[in-house]
Amino acid sequence: MQPDVGKIYEGKVTGITKFGAFVEIEPGVTGMVHISEVANTFVNDIKDHLTEGQQVKVKVLSVSEEGKISLSIKKALPAPPKKEFRPREGGRPAGGQGRPMGGQGGRPRQDRAVPKEPQTPESAFEDMLNKFKASSDERMGDIRRNMDSKRRNTSRRRGN
After folding, report:
1. Is the pTM of this model over 0.70?
2. Do 61 and 46 form a contact (C-beta atoms < 8 A)?
3. How do 69-72 and 8-17 pair as beta strands?
């Protein structure tokens, strides 16, 4: 019997390894829950979350051509509540008085940025990649300026 992708099953943990757990969702039908799909928090040791014989709800993520079934416990759970942003009391005084923009010459501080809408993993990755690229471009510009100034200085020495 082929399980339906996206369907949630009640299963029994039949085995635990350091990289995941095997769950029998129907008699004779076993899939694997990777350690990253066990909980919404970081899982260092899977045995802290699961035991053999435990009944768990799992969602079928995929079924490979070889018949391997990929399962997820965390996707079978209700989504964790999203943290709401609440401005702190006693923030900056009205009228824009106080230190300008985090005290960095008008540049906004990264840790004081206004929280955006919750990000998807894809958009969070894109943001991280864009920040890395900007930082890398800035460093490369510094290196080029430094090399150009060294080239100019060596040509002046030779001319004397």
Report:
1. no
2. no
3. unpaired
